[in-house]
Amino acid sequence: MAVSGEKRPPPPAPASGGTARKKLILALFICFSALLYKQILQPPLPKIAGSPGGPPVTATRTRLSDGRYLAYLEHGVPKEKAKYKIIFVHGFDSCRYDALPISTELAQELGVYLLSFDRPGYAESDPHPGRTEKSIALDIAELADNLQLGLKFYLVGFSMGGEIMWSCLKHIPHRLSGVAILGPVGNYWWSGLPANVSRDAWYQQLPQDQWAVWVAHHLPWLTYWWNSQRLFPASSVIAYNPALLSQEDKLLMAKFGYRTYMPQIRQQGEHECLHRDMMVGFGKWSWSPLQLENPFAGADDDGQEGAGKVHLWHGAEDLVVPVSLSRYISEKLPWVVYHELPKSGHLFLIGDGMADTIVKSLLLGDDHPSSASALTASS
């Protein structure tokens, strides 16, 4: 019973028609957005090798501590007899079969064991949904441990694998005896890159690649859709646009473009290999290679010739990865040994004898007689 004189609270006002309509519109927008993301923007689940409905496992694989598997391939002399142990990191749209093509004669002469592997999401290595620029460096260190390569090893990386070399120098420098960085992809947003250097390199890309890279950096959640839709031209690198081939690359393309195992490379889904490569490589890094210090300064090279060096190789006619970023980085990091090949494009690695030249330079040093003669022939 109400006490006389007590003021009662006013009854709640009925919802107005305008408020109800706003709520309905908001609910419809949320539903539409969720449906749009699920049907159009969300990448399909990967077809993991060895899983029900996925491709079969044909490679030798090793299990990492988080349960993922990496597929690998061994080359050269047996690791138990090797003087030098090299891990090769393949580039964009490639796999373990795209290993550093050193000659059998050189491997035997120098005692080289070479290990190549499928990076996460490629061919028969499990995807890594949480992949970062750091995680791949840790994967490489764990791979070396699983295969008992010892405390230290050499690294060679090509293209997108070349960019990964910077991450290895940052995160696992204590595991490295020497590094060769070949035609590395560069991130246009790395701190320390002057605006004019980054801008000039940016505009050396085709316009459609500028858009694809911009999306991967600023809107990574749209990377799958952008490279799958048909409204606008997507990445020309994914499409193998011949406009990206230098004169030398056109001659070498027969070796690279018609590999019998190409269907295996993307078999788990393009998003888990190609798109994640773009999202990580062109993503927002918390550091820059320009901030690195010489990881081999004052280090003991264990008596091995040429050890403890970082070699950076780039073709001056590279139309896939602008050479200007490598030029600038090598100028700012005086401990990097820079080799620019004046007539070469992006695929210089598979040119006749080039892999042997790179390995001699890495393992023996540029002053060694066999390295010096090979470098003269390649320039």
UniProtKB/TrEMBL annotation:
What protein name applies here?
Answer: AB hydrolase-1 domain-containing protein
- Signal peptide range equals none
**Where does the chain cross the membrane?**
none
List each copy of the AB hydrolase-1 domain by range: 86-350
Which Pfam family, giving just one, matches this sequence? Abhydrolase_1
Spell out the PANTHER family in the cross-references: ALPHA_BETA-HYDROLASES SUPERFAMILY PROTEIN, HYDROLASE, ALPHA/BETA FOLD FAMILY PROTEIN, EXPRESSED-RELATED
The protein's matches in Gene3D superfamilies, at most eight in alphabetical order, are given as: alpha/beta hydrolase
